[in-house]
Amino acid sequence: MTTKKIFIFGMIVFSHLLSFSQQKDPTEKKIDELLSKMTLDEKIGQMNQLTGLGLSDDMVSSIRGGKVGSILNEIDAKTVNKLQRIAVEETRLGIPLVFARDVIHGFKTIFPIPLGQAASWNPQVAENGARVAAIEASAAGIRWTFAPMIDVSRDPRWGRIAESCGEDPYLTSVIGAAMIKGFQGNDLSSQTSMAACAKHFAAYGASESGKDYNTTWIPELQLREVYFPPFEAAIKANAATFMCSFNDINGVPSSGSKFLNYDVLRKEWKYDGVLVSDWESIGQMIPHGFSADLKDAALIAANAYVDMDMMSFAYINYLKDLVNSGNVSEAIVDDAVRNILRLKFRLGLFDNPYTPEYDELPFYTDDALQKAKHAAIESAVLLKNDKNVLPLNGVKTVAVVGPLLDSQADQLGTWCFDGEPAHSVTPLTAIKKEYGKKYNIVAEKGLTYSRDKSAEGIKKAVEAAQKADVVVAFVGEESVLSGEARSRADISLPGAQGELISALKATGKPVVMVVMAGRPLTIGNEVSTADAVLFSFHGGIMAGPALADLIFGEAVPSGKLPVTIPRMVGQIPVYYAHKNTGRPANNIDLIDDIPVGALQTSIGFTSYHLDAGDKPLFPFGFGLSYATFDYSDVRLSKNTISGNETLTVECDVTNSGKIDAQEVVQLYIRDKVGSLVRPVRELKDFQKITLKSGETKTVKFELTNEQLAFWNADKVKRAEAGEFQVWVSTDSQSGTPVSFWYK
Ligand code: NOJ
User: Averaged over 273-302, what is the pLDDT?
Assistant: First the structure.
């Protein structure tokens, strides 16, 4: 055969295969058939998402008129079914609605906030939480949740860090993917599955100064290296939908970014799910100064391939004109509608549009409560434990104090619209119930809420402490101080809680501080004062029983920080995977060490803060246990690898403590010299293992060139030849590196 004949033959085979594969996908065929019957108005109606107004006349007529494709915030199965019946039975094409809601860390059975779930470093914990949420929320008719939030978050001032999986792209990818798996289940069309939504695309976590909705300026390579990987992982995990972010990146609001939403999401990543705007984010391009008016905003968003308009009313009012005038092509509208119909087919809504109306809703089952408790146990991070104060032991009377001791609402944390505080079991209730027989419990909140500054309250707490052998103080933030639009410039303990800890310590009794918060807090003074510190991000409905078991030794802490805790706000941004300067910190002279009248040249010239030094209060990955772990030297299968060879990295980890416990073994690398400077360490893998007292396990990791690769100076993702260091360690700061070469 001549080359030409081979080419023609090849083309024929290829086109047969192509048409065969197209024919093979029955859903795509159904979508095309349906789309071909739709008028422009009907298409635009599908692209409109409205908030629930019950069975109001407005809503009923919008649905009947084909002006809405999705409704958010309707949470009663009966109402959902009535609205759905109108869409299915009273519109020309009977296209079902999809009902959505922010079910972020639980619907009724509230799990720890996502940052807490990430602190478990246990994907199963995150998957369980999402599965329970899906079972409960889908029973109310909700088949689409706006979670997980996988914005890499390196700024604890930002209130939404609570909703994130922390500062690291890899940990966020793993925990985010686990949540997607839990929400969507094994089969998205099952009536107990919810479509997940990877949000916010992109870089919302980088909002300047941690102020919500704020601007960002991020080079493309940094977007690709830090902010995009969790979204790529979400696509691999089959996330059914994405959401735009509120912020602008380099001057372009995400809802108007063709680069993000088309070039990257559709062309490069081949994503075929729905991209929904954030709430009014299309309209908000007007105050951003990117759109002149709502029609202009609709034009920009549609041409930036945003499929669905959440609550801006931009598409429903202007898209038809824009298409008719040729400013937006109908092909773009068709693509958006295809994505939306695909979601509805994948959810099985055409076959089963109605929600089963249960007599007894599957809320708060024993299984769900146990999983929530387990999640809260695994999420707590032990930061300090002088003289092994914890678990409590050899004491008779325990004073339990502090504003978070008995606050059913606050322990739920942010973003739980449907959680019912009355179902929360607080630390006080759990301690009295589970340990009240064995120990004498003296309870006195002292401060009644986290911002309370009452001196009288502190006095009462001190009186309680004086009657006890040990004091456990539950401090932190009320839930309303973190979450959306809850940024803080001062992230210390609010109110007089710092004074409370000092006053308790002054009694001479050992003080255990339990922090329940929505973000890392600058608690350096309190950490120095307290004898033990257990940091629990808002732990959800079962936070009380979980913390009680940890305090009294029925459970062992195994959480690790998913985010750095700064000493001072002025250190922010502070994260472990930073780049080195040309003058890394050494010879640190702190401000009070400098002699009066010292000369300009007498100190330093390295990179640190005079008042904070060079280190955070606690690094990423840090967390103690009631056991201790010894790490052996790291062993490598080879000194040099090339191409796509795999390097095996092994390390023996021994539980040298007296108690069985879990440890998160972390694998970090450093690329010593790059065409662009590389972070001082990057997390590449981890394993959470259980070790009996005295037991040793060999932990084995495989490193591939994929994991060594980065977006380099040529704007390609590739592993560069040269020396790498690898650590297997208990956190991001410890361990001894071993070198290997890639060529
Ligand atoms: C605004 C938030 O940014 C987003 O995360 C949420 O899903 C929507 N509102 C809908 O409530």
Answer: 98
Domain identity same for 544 and 689: no
- Is the per-residue pLDDT at 17 higher than 60? no
Query: Would the CB of 151 count as within 6 Å of ligand 1?
Result: no
Q: Nearest-CA neighbor of 141 among 419, 432, 353, 395?
A: 353
Residues 6+ apart with CB under 8 A from 333: 40, 43, 44, 47, 302, 319, 323
Q: Is 622 in the pocket of ligand 1 (CB under 6 A)?
A: no
113-164 pLDDT tens trace: 999 999 999 999 999 999 999 999 999 999 999 999 999 999 999 999 999 9
Residue 468 C-alpha from the chain's centroid: 39
Rounded-to-10 torsion of CA 250, 252, 253, 256: -150
Q: Tell whether ligand 1 has an atom less than 6 A from the beta carbon of residue 163.
A: no
- Mark whether 544 and 433 lie in a shared domain: yes
What residues make up the domain containing 460? 373-552
Q: How far is CA 260 from CA 80, 132, 169, 180, 641, in A?
A: 33, 32, 18, 21, 35
Instruction: Give nearest CA residue, ligand 1 atom 9.
Output: 279
Residue whose CB lies within 8 A of the most ligand 1 atoms, among 113, 160, 247, 484, for a mutation test: 484
| Residue nearest atom 1 of ligand 1, based on CA coordinates | 279
Q: What is the pLDDT of residue 18?
A: 46
Last residue in a domain, options 524, 552, 580:
552
pLDDT for 600: 85
How many angstroms does the Cα of residue 146 sit away from the middle of ligand 1? Answer: 7
Check whether residue 543 and residue 672 sit in a common domain: no
541 and 649 share a domain? Answer: no
Ligand 1 touching residue 136 (CB < 6 A): no
Q: Give per-residue pLDDT as tens, 201-210.
A: 999 999 999 9
| CA–centroid distance, residue 277 to ligand 1 (Å) | 9
Please check whether residues 528 and 415 belong to one and the same domain.
yes
**Number of structural domains, the chain?**
3
- Is the Cβ atom of 160 under 6 angstroms away from ligand 1? no
Catalytic site positions = 278
Give the per-residue pLDDT at 15: 46
**529 and 413 inside one domain:** yes
Query: pTM score, two decimals?
Result: 0.96
Residue 280 near ligand 1, beta carbon < 6 Å: no
- The CA 347 to ligand 1 mean position distance, Å, reads 21
Give pLDDT tens digits for 274-285. Answer: 999 999 999 999
Where are the alpha helices (H) located in 366-476, listed in sequence order? 366-379, 427-435, 455-466
Please report whether residue 73 resides in a domain. no
Index of the ligand 1 atom closest to the CA of residue 199: 5
Q: Is 469 within the bounds of a domain?
A: yes
**Are both 650 and 518 inside the same structural domain?**
no
CATH number at residue 540: 3.40.50.1700
One domain, residues 518 and 431? yes
Maximal C-alpha separation, the chain? 97
Last residue of a domain, one of 515, 531, 552: 552
